[in-house]
Structure formats: structure tokens, C-alpha cells
Amino acid sequence: MGYHPKRMPTPENTYALILAGGSGTRFWPLSRNDKPKQLLDLFGNGTLLEATINRLVGLVPVENILILTNSLQVESVRQIASMLPAENIFAEPAKRDTAPAVALGIGLISARNPDAIMMVLPSDQLIKDHHAYQSVMKDALACAEHSDGLVTIGIKPTWPCPSYGYIERGELASIPGMDFQHSPVEVKRFREKPNPELAEEFLNAGGFSWNAGMFVWSLPTVISQLAAHAPELADFISELRKSSDIPATIDAQFPKLTAVSIDYALMETADRVLNIEATFDWDDVGSWVSIAKYLHEEGENNRTNRHISQIDSENNIVFNATDGTHIALLGVDDLIVVKTQDALLIANRHQADAIKKLSDLLPKNLL
Q1: Please, what are the domains in the chain?
Q2: What is residue 362's three-state secondary structure?
């Protein structure tokens, strides 16, 4: 019979759910509740949401790409994702973490095509190599169609990062009749965000991937697994599939769902999870420090999106979102300086991850 590499689902059977409702509080004051990281043009070449959609061209038909966001962001999302059918963009009626969001997406796609293979994708990650990305995702789609596993995409760790969840990888997966360029392995278990010492152990041991929050599965498989391990979500999906008024069902039932992550609700307990390690570049650009490396360098490792004047200043990050303001630095090191029309942030770059804590203290009109 022979092997059939990349025996993928047909285009009409392939769907993508993009999650685009995050708040992006680490990027204040540029990001706000109605315009978080994924809706910003941080690098001068479009938003991260646009890039997420563009990576799918040729892989998923545009009419099969769905976006979940929230009521504060839905109009901005519609403007950015104008290439999608308007009915493919949904605003969640309440904030309920990733498990209910993913269940909502499963229900919406299942109502259209109960046999679909679907990808779940974050909207706020930076991936530049589209060819390598599609190569990995093609294998993931084929793996999901021809196995009984839920497929995760992992990122090979480059340093002992304590801010990511980890996937402990096991033996090579056996999927009869299939041959993959990017071989799937069985997942031993998911590991929560570790302390720095444990992250160092994971890195030294090998066999661990960062959990990138990208999932691929067939609807029959994931619905079966939800019925076994997260019945509340399975019941919600069933209601959506039977509903004669899907928006009304969402408004009535979604806010009642338990707020929990998809990792905790399903992935950590599922009967079979497979992992494919990415060969594409990946950055979750989680803070101003991670964005800095994509900005222009001036002086002694100062990173900026616009020209600055500087004397005796090192390792600063400057992002100027205003046209009429020039920023000058004198004798300062390790600062983050972000200027918008209505706010100015000056922070220690070593506390970049703590910027989100400011949201409890700021005036409401600046959130």
C-alpha cells in the first residue's frame, strides 16, 4: 500500500479558530482594553492579527477562518479582518478563559461541518517563516485526521523560561499508513509554568517543548474527549449544534460556563495527546523587552522605533507613538520609555513583566 506523506484533509474540511480577545496589559500605555497587542502595528508592517490570518493563506479557505474576540475589540477586529466574512467574527458575551472560548469555536464550526479538522491559534504571536509554518501545520492537520489524538504544537526551548508551560515529550507516535516530515510524538504530560530552577532542569534534560497554545484536532475526537473529561463544555457544544438561534444560545449559556484554561480543562487529562515540535521561528512577544530586539538600535544597545537623541545612556527601550514628540536620553540605563498621545510610561526594563500591575492604579480612561 505504501506511505502517503501529508495526506491532509480537504480544504473544505479544514478550519481555523483564531483567539483574539486578550487584554495585553504588559504593553500599556500603547495597548488598551479596546486595542491590545494583537491589534497593534508594533513593527511597522501590520498587526499580529493580520499576520496570523495571512499565514493561513493557501492552507485554510478564508470562509473557514473564524475569530473570537470580545465586545470592546470586535469593531477593530472587523476592520483588520475585513477579508473574512462578517459572520465569521464573534464577540464573546463574557470573559471566560480559553476552555469556554475554544468550546464556543468548536460548537460554531461543528454546526457548519461536524467532521471538520480544526486548528486553534493565538492571534498575538510573531512567526515570520510562513513556508516552514505551513509545513508543520500540514503535518499537524494530517496527524489529527488520521489519529485519535489531540495535536499540540511545541516550541523547542532556547533558554530556561519560567513564563511558559512545558510539554514533556515521549516516544514517537505510531500512526499506521502515514509518513510525516515533522514526526509527532506522544505527550507524557503537561507541566505548569516552572520556577527558574525547574525550568533549567527541563532544558538540561531535553525532551521538553514550550506550550505555544496551538492545537489541532478532528471535531469527533475533541468532542468525544470533552464529553469524557469536561462534560459542561461538551453539553454547551451540543446545545450550539442543535440551536435554531446560535447568537441567543451563546448569550444565554456562555456566561454560565466555568472560567478555566483549555490546558487544565482538557489537554492535561485527555486520553491521547500528540506533539509536533515547530521548525519555524516563534516569539510570543510577551513584553516590551521581547519587542525591543525587533526595533532599531541606537547608541549603546538602545532600541527604539524612532530616532532619539542620547548621551551616556545604555540598554534603554524607547517606543514613541506620537508625531510631535522627540525623546532624548541623558545618563540613564535600563529604562522602558513609551509615549502615546495621552500617557507616558517610564519603567525599569527588569520589571517589564510587572507593567500589567499598573492597571489597578491607572485612571479608568487610560485602560
Answers
A1: 11-277 (3.90.550.10), 288-366 (no CATH)
A2: coil
